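PT: before anyone asks, these are the final sequences, not the draft ones from last week. 1120 residues across everything. Please model them as a single complex and drop the result in this thread when it's through.
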Amino acid sequence: MNDRLMDFDKAIEQFEPVLGFEVHVELSTRTKMFSSAPNAFGSEPNTNVTPVCLGLPGSLPVVNEQAVRYSISLGLALGCSIAESSRFARKNYFYPDLAKNYQISQYDEPIAFDGSVDVELEDGRIVPVAIERAHMEEDAGKLTHLGGATGRIQGAEYSLVDYNRAGVPLVEIVTRPIEGAGADAPALARAYVATIRDIVLALGISEARMDRGNLRCDANVSLRPRGQQRYGTRTETKNVNSLRSVERAVRYEIQRQAAILAEGGTITQETRHWHEDTGRTSPGRPKSDADDYRYFPEPDLLPVVPSAELIAELRAALPEAPAVRRRRLKEAWGFTDLEFRDVVNGGLLAEVQATVEAGASPQAARKWWTGEISRIANAREAEAAALVAPAQVAELQGLVDDGTLTDKLARQVLEGVIDGEGSPAEVVQRRGLAVVSDDGALLAAIDEALAAQPDVLEKIRDGKVQAAGAIIGAVMKAMKGQADAARVRELVLERAQG
Amino acid sequence: MPESTADRAAAITPDLVAHLAGLARIALSGEEVERLTVQLGQILDNVAKVSEVATEDVPPTSHPIPLQNVFRADAVADVLTQEQALSGAPDAESGRFRVRAILGEEQ
Amino acid sequence: MSGTGAEAITRLPAAELAQLLAAGELSSVEATRAHLDRIAQVDDVVNAFLHVSDHALDVAADVDARRAAGEQLGPLAGVPLAIKDVLVTSDMPTTAGSRILEGWLPPYDATVVQKIRAADLVPLGKTNMDEFAMGSTTENSAYGPTRNPWDLDRIPGGSGGGSAACLAAFEAPLALGSDTGGSIREPAHLTGTVGVKPTYGGVSRYGVIALASSLDQIGPCARTVLDAALLHDVIAGHDPHDSTSLGEAWPSFAELARSSADASALQGLRVGVVRELSGEGIDPGVRQRFTETLELLAAHGAEIVEVSMPHVEYAVAAYYLILPAEASSNLARYDSVRFGLRADVTGTVEDVMSATREAGFGDEVKRRVILGTYALSAGYYDAYYGKAQKVRTLIQRDFAAAFEQAEVLVSPTAPMTAYPLGTTTHDPLAQYLNDITTIPVNLAGIPGMSVPVGLSPEDGLPVGLHLMAPARQDARLYRAGAAVEALVREHRGAPLLDAVPDLAAAIQAWQEVAR
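LR: through. Structure below.
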C-alpha cells in the first residue's frame, strides 16, 4: 500500500517543516573505540575482533586515546564547547549485533556540546545550524539476513553476525531542531550533511564515505501548521546512505506527513526506513517504552577530563572553517560565483580540490565533476564521489591535455574507468581509444573521404571553407572519433591548397 | 515517584515484573512472576530506605577510587583468530555467528 | 624430606611447600600429586571443585625440569593453586557456577591467571561458587553446594565457598577468590581460613566474569596470612587491560607479613571498633571471640578505640541496588549468540534468547537481574540507583572520618558461624544479611581481610576477625593480620585449622548417615 503524498509546494504552503539530524561519523583510527582490534573495512568476518569486541565474559573496555583526540577536534570544528569532565554511559538493549547487549555511549556528559555550523544553500544564503551535542560511542556488528526474498529483515529465515565492525569508534552529532527552512528543507538537509562531510574530511578523521557507512544520517522530520508554536510529531528516517537520499527522504517525509495531516490524521512517532530504489519511506518499529535504555554511568571506564593544553593544541591544529576554505579556493581557482556554487551544491568540493591537487586545472576538474561525472551519477542513481577517484580524473584530463584523447574520447574512457576496467591509461590501451596522431593515417582517410565527395575541394578553393566540415565529419566517423578534429581540418585545408 | 512503604510494595505488580522480564529477555513462567512479585516487593521495602538519607547535596559516587583519563595507544593487539572467535558459538556459518530470524528492527 | 607422606604434604602451608620445593627436597610433581590424591579422596562429598585439571602434573613436571636446569624461579614456583570458577582460563572450562556457561572453554586467560602461570604456580582446577557470585552460601551454584569441612551439613559461605573449603579440606594450599560484598572474607570466616579483598583496582579484573563492576575484586585465599601475602604479591599490579586498575607499585606483602609476625607490630596501633558493625545481630559465640581478640590486642600494645559510622546501616540497601543494577547489565551478554547455552526452542532469536536465559539462570540470578532492571528503568533511576550511589559517598566519608581515629578498623567478619545448608535457601533477604559487615568495604573500595581468631564456644565453629584499612593501605592489613595470627596461635597453642575434624572420617560417617 503506497503512501499518499501531497504536492510539495502545497505542503510547504500549509505546513512548516522542522528538521533534526543525528549524523554518525565513523572515525578512521587504527583500532576500535574500546578495544585494540583493527578498525578496517572489508576483512574476512570475525577476524578483526578481540575478546572485548565479542563481549566475552570477563572482557573490559579501554578507551582509544586517538579517538578521543579526534572527537575533541570534531567538537571544536563544530564550534562546540568541550566538556570539562566527560563520561561514558551504558545504553542497554538486546540485539544480536550488539555483543554485550549494551552499547557504550555517552549520555549526560558528552564530550562536546552547544555548537553551531554554518550551512550554505544554493542561493548563497547561510543558515546556522545549532549543534546540541557530539558524543563518542561504539558501532555495532553487521547482520546479514538470509533465507528471505529481499535480504532485509522481514521474511528472513536466519541471520549471520560479523563483529568486525562492532566497537568501531563513532561520533554522533545531534542538531537542535532546525526551524524556518521552509521549501529549502530538503536542500538544507543535504547541504548540512555535505558540510559535516567536508568538515570531517578536512580534519582527516574519517573517510566519510556514505556508501560505506563511514557517515550515516538519521533524518528527523516533523510538520506543524503554519503559525503554530508547538512542534508536530516527528518521524526518524534511517538508511539514508547518500547526500541525494538525504534530500529525497526529507522531501518525501514532508509530502507524506502533509497528506496525513491535511486529512485530519495523526503522525505516528516512529522510525522509518528509506528505500532509495523506490524513493519511499516505510515504517519500522513504533517508538515504544521498549526503548527504555536504562542509561547509567559506565563503571568500567573513568571520566575523560581534557586538559586546557590538549584543547589548545587541537584547536590550533584545526583546519580553516569550511566557509573560509571555500572563499579561499574560489579565489584561487578563479571561479565565478555560479561555477563555485555548482561545485559546492553538488557536494563535490573535496573531489575538485583533490583533482586539482593531482595536477588538473581547476576549470577542467570542475567540468568533469559537475558535468559528465555528475550526469553519470544521476543516471545511475549513485554518488559521484563513489564512481571515480580524483587522481584518475586528473590523469584523464592529462591525456586530453597532451593530445592523446579528445574530449569526446575522454568521456568514453571515463565510462570505462567507472566500470572498473582500470586506470585511464589502461582503458585507453585496452579499448584502443587513443587519438590517431599519425598524419599518414589521417591523410589516407581524408583522401578516401575526398574521393567520395569530389566537389568539396572545389568549394574550399572557392572560399567556402565550411565545406570542409563534411570531410571532417566523414573522417571522424571513419576513425571512430579517434582523431583530433582540428588537425583533420588543417590537413584538409592543406590538401585544398596543394 | 513511590514514597511510602505501601506505595513501594504496591509498585511491584505481576504486570511490572512481566514487563521487566521482557526488558531483561527472561521468559519467566507465570509461577515465577508471582513469586518474584512478592520477593521483589519485600526486597524493595528494605532497600528503598536509601532515599531517607541521600539528600540533594550529596554527590553520587560511581567509581570507588577516583581515576581519570585512562587511555590506551591506538595500536593493534590481542586479536583473536576467526576460529578462536567462533570457538564458543552454538551455531556458525561461513565465519559468522548464526542466529534465528530477528523480530525487531536495528536501533 | 623423608617420611613425608602425601597427607603431610597437603597439611603444609604454601610458604613451607615453596621452601621445600626451592631446596629440592620435594618436587612439584609430588606436591601436585598429593593434592590431586586428596581431591580424589574427599571432593565427591566436599564438592569444592567444579573441574580438576587433567594436565596439572604436566605443568608441575615442567616446573621441576626448569628448576633442575638451573632456571631462577619465583617464590611460589611449583606450588599448587585452586582457581575460583569466576576467572577465565583457556585450558579449563569456566562456568561462574552457572548452567548458562556449562562447558564453556574461553579463548583467552584472565590477566591474574596469566600472572600465576608466569609465576609457575600449578593450577589444580576451578572451584565452586554461587552462580555469577550472587550469594553468601554457595547454595546458589548450579552444580550443587560445597560442604564445609568443619561440618559437612553446613555452609562454607559464599560466593567463594569452593575456594575456602578446598583450603580447609587441605585439597589446595592456595586459592584465588573474588569478593564483591564479602565473597572471599565471609567464607574465610566460616572455614577458619584467611581471605583478603585488595583495594579496588589493586588486582586486575580483566578476565573476571563480572558481577558488579564497581565492586568486584580478585584476592588471595590461604590458610595463613603469609601465604595470602605471597599470593597477593603475585597477582597485584596495574593492568592496561583494566581501566580501573591502579597504577602504583605495591610493597611486598610477604615481607611485611614476615616482619610483623609478632606483637611488636601492634605497639601503639590504633584499632577502631566500628560500633554499628559489632553490636546488634552478632551471635554471642562470635561476639565472645571477637571481644577476646580485642583484649588480646590491647594486652599487647594496641589501642582499642570505638568509632562510629552512622551511615553504615544503609550499606546493605545501597549494595542491593548498585549490584543488581550493574549485574543486570553485565549479564545481558548471556544470550545464546556467541557462547554458552542455547535453548532448543523454535521462534525468533528473541524467543531463543529469552528461553535460554530462563533455562540457564538460577532463581537468585533472575531475582537480581529483574531488580536491577527495575532500579535502572525510566522513572526509577533517581530514586534507587542514583540514591544508592549517594549512600556510597556517605559510606566513604564515614570511613574517612573513622580512619582519622584509627589505623585499622575491625569488626567480626560475619554475624554468625556456619549454619546448616538449606537454612536460608527460601529466604533471600536473610541471606543478604550474612554480608552486613563485609559490604561497606566493597562500597568504599577499601581493602579488607578476614583472619581466623578462634572457635565459637557455642558450636565449635570458626570465627574470623575482619580487618579494614584505607584505600591503598593493604599493607596495614598484612601487618596487623600477621600480628593477630601470631598472637592467636600463641594463645591457643596451635594453628586453628589443627582443630578441623578429620575429613576422611567425617565423610565416611556422613555417607553412612546419608545411606
